[in-house]
Design brief:
This protein is mainly alpha-helical. It has three helices and no strands.
Length: 83
């Protein structure tokens, strides 16, 4: 069954060394939906926003540094390095 994507041809690069797909957002989203998947980063981002979004906004409005916010919510060390 054709989806109509790339009806006039598409350029692509296949990299067997990674499990991530990259491309135009709309097309990648459509591919993920077609195969019953969602992007890993999308899931992680939604999880972080759900868990910490209100606290992050409150800290940002208090003009707290993004590095301190990251450390405060336990996502980074005090030096801003992700864990």
């Amino acid at each position: 069954k054709t989806t109509g994507f790339c009806a006039k041809g598409c350029a692509a690069i296949a990299d067997s060394g990674t499990s991530l797909m990259a491309g135009p957002t709309g097309i990648i989203t459509a591919i993920n939906e077609a195969i019953g998947a969602s992007g890993v980063m999308n899931q992680q981002c939604k999880s972080i926003v759900t868990q910490y979004g209100d606290a992050m906004i409150a800290m940002l409005t208090q003009k707290m540094s993004p590095y301190k916010i990251c450390a405060q919510i336990g996502m980074c060390s005090q030096r801003g390095q992700s864990q």
